[in-house]
Automatic annotation (TrEMBL):
Uppermost EC category: ligase
Protein's cellular compartments: Cytoplasm
Nucleotide-binding is among the record's keywords: yes
Functional pathway: Cofactor biosynthesis; (R)-pantothenate biosynthesis; (R)-pantothenate from (R)-pantoate and beta-alanine: step 1/1
Membrane-spanning residues: none
UniProt: (R)-pantoate binding residues: Q58, Q150
Name of the protein in question: Pantothenate synthetase
Pfam family, one: Pantoate_ligase
Chief site of localization: cytoplasm
Signal peptide limits: none
HAMAP family associated with the record: PanC
Length: 279
């Protein structure tokens, strides 16, 4: 089947066939991480829609909206190779009317960890995701664990607003040396890249410890050893559903998350671990 490129809501309506629809929302500059989400969607649904939209609402005034990579033609090749049925690629005017007023609030969970460093970011994410859900009307949608707080907030939105959509999480795809794939990695020089490896190394070292204090301390040590070119925004060990800090008595799954800047490039990463009794 030919890949359909939909630029507006009429195109989307025309592209609809029967059967289960899966949506994979992206900002483009597609890489192997996005491909793994598409494959997961493909297995589960009759029709796969990939949205490619760099959402201005989720970027702060001093963030990289204008220099975010845009590689639409190459993205179409990726989508064709992965058997995607529809690419939804609206422009900003199609998504946001100049007089728009109503948006989604992520609530308190949108203001901690990543949200504490990017005010309004998760409101912008949830607003665009809800709009994409309403435009595409998928039965299921696939999101990466790479953006763990985003995934948790989307699950909360679906629960709190009774959205009839199944949310699937997909594991983080990494380079062989551990670096999590990201559209922003293309901005890293070889030197930057070596510094950036401290993120995944710190998460691995932390995850090898047993208790929260030791996990945090070990991960921090590895980050500090990377030197001053790595500017850490946060290292957090949190409950995967609420993103509240876990204490020493906590048991169960936890997320160890990090954000840091190397030069002008901001990177995030996380791992999931299990804290058990009797450690
Ligand atoms: P983005 O284009 O960066 O907004 O990401 C679109 C989707 O791809 C989100 O659900 C991300 O969590 C997911 N994603 C980004 N990087 C990776 C990765 N390395 N592995 C798995 N999923 C990813």
């Amino acid at each position: 089947m030919e890949l359909i490129v939909a630029r507006d809501r009429e195109d989307l309506v025309k592209a609809r066939r029967g059967g289960e629809v899966a949506l994979v929302p992206t900002m483009g500059a597609l890489h192997e991480g996005h491909r793994s989400l598409i494959r997961q969607a493909r297995v589960r649904a009759d029709q796969v829609v990939v949205s490619i939209f760099v959402n201005p609402l989720q970027f702060g005034p001093n963030e990289d909206f204008s220099r975010y990579p845009r590689t639409f033609e190459a993205d179409l090749d990726v989508c064709r190779a992965e058997g995607v049925d529809v690419v939804f690629h609206p422009d900003v005017e199609e998504m946001y009317a100049p007089d728009r007023q109503v948006s989604v609030s992520a609530g308190p969970m949108g203001e901690v960890v990543e949200g504490a460093h990017r005010p309004g970011h998760f409101d912008g994410v949830l607003t665009v995701v809800l709009k994409l859900f309403n435009l595409v009307r998928p039965d299921l949608a696939v999101f990466g664990q790479k953006d763990a707080q985003q995934l948790a907030l989307i699950r909360r939105m679906v629960a709190d607003l009774d959205l009839p959509i199944e949310i699937l999480g997909a594991p983080t795809v990494r380079e062989p040396d551990g670096l999590a794939l990201s559209s922003r990695n293309r901005y890293l020089s070889d030197d930057d890249r070596r510094v950036a490896l401290a993120l995944s190394r710190a998460l691995r070292a932390g995850a090898a410890e047993l208790a929260p204090a030791a996990i945090r301390a070990t991960a921090r040590e590895v980050l500090a050893a990377a030197g001053p070119r790595l500017e850490v925004d946060y290292l957090a060990l949190v409950d995967p559903e609420t993103f509240a800090d876990v204490d020493e008595s906590y048991e169960g799954m936890a997320v160890l998350a990090v954000a840091a800047r190397v030069g002008a490039t901001r990177l995030i990463d996380n791992v999931t671990l299990t804290l058990t009794r009797g450690r």
